[in-house]
């Protein structure tokens, strides 16, 4: 994975749309961020930075490479200091209780995080 940052000219909404469309058409692009205030285009993926510049030149942009390097690693969640109950979804912000087998409750959520089923 490579993170490429390029300075581009963003004069209007049409320019922004053209830039986004041109870059997202490239093979290997995983993420595209366009900062209008800084006129900075950030592209993350396995694509070739030269292909990004060529694609932008096709739409009359004059890209200036600011930075090429590895993307920032995702932040790790801190390790928990006390045991968690399996049906709390590994969050330890709830108090830990010792339950008997007859007191167990199973809670599951949908993959999108919405709703729950209590059995």
From TrEMBL:
Keyword match S-adenosyl-L-methionine: no
Source domain of life: Eukaryota
The name of this protein is HMA domain-containing protein
Q: Which residues form a coiled coil?
A: none
Q: Sorted alphabetically, which PANTHER family does this protein's record hold? A: COPPER TRANSPORT PROTEIN FAMILY-RELATED, HMA DOMAIN-CONTAINING PROTEIN
Family indicated by similarity: Belongs to the HIPP family.
Domain called HMA: residue spans: 1-67
Which UniProt keyword terms apply here?
Lipoprotein, Metal-binding, Methylation, Prenylation
Pfam entry (one) = HMA
Q: Which organism is it from?
A: Brassica napus (Rape)
